Amino acid sequence: MAKRRIFTAPSAQVVEISTGTARLEKVAGEPDSYVLHVNDVPSSSITLSDPARLDFEYLDWMARIIEATLPAGTVRAIHIGAAGCALARALDARRPGSRQTAIDIDPLLIDYVRTWFDLPRSPALALRAGDGAEEIAGFRDDTADAIVRDAFSHDSVPTALQTAEFYAECARVLKPGGLFLANVPDSGDHRVLRDELDAAASAFPHLAAASESGVLKGRRRGNVVVAASARPLPDAALDRVLRTAPTMAAWLTGETLAARLGR
């Protein structure tokens, strides 16, 4: 097996991109770890020598949900919101032979990310510039194992990626046992999360949410992972793997989730 090339990104850099600015910061005390900020929002954490490493807690939760939900082997995944492609790198490392597409609204950011990081090449990982709400319509029916939505405009999700129409397109593209995951910013009042779950419910019969207990109880702001599928999710297995994560997360479904959201 050929030795993997190790890229060396700059220790710090601020660049202009199509949507504003991108800032690359080296993690103190780490030889090759970086955090990518897009318009001052931390968007990816990358360790060049260890693509399977996921330092952002919500990305670790997503990876665990994928591992527990989708059968072992290769996956066909679509990422809406590419940033540094941390999750795509991890899936490529953990499931060699997978085919992934990462879509980002900012073509200049994609160019920088290609330069800075050791990204898998197409067809292992194809990078595409475009609006995710429009690009998803170009994928064929029943072809994706997973769709991951992790796209932001500054600190909020673009409204076009939160509609019932968007969710319907994702449901169309996913295989019958496919998995949809979304990173939802929760401010503590659960308003955005409730709207997101309502939109997801219009296209998927099985829903769940995962996050730290304090976030789900409305005590503080944080990231919530929304999971959706046309088929039942393995709730017991998912609850177990999320409780053993470095940052423990609760897995909520059905009446328990509704009660936590004040419904």
Automatic annotation (TrEMBL):
Keywords: Polyamine biosynthesis. Pfam families: Methyltransf_11. Residues 79-181 form the Methyltransferase type domain. It comes from the Bacteria. One of its GO terms (biological process) is polyamine biosynthetic process. InterPro entries: Methyltransf_11, SAM-dependent_MTases_sf. One of its GO terms (molecular function) is S-adenosylmethionine-dependent methyltransferase activity. NCBIfam families: MFS_SpdSyn. This is Fused MFS/spermidine synthase. It comes from Brevibacterium casei. The lineage of its organism: Bacteria, Bacillati, Actinomycetota, Actinomycetes, Micrococcales.
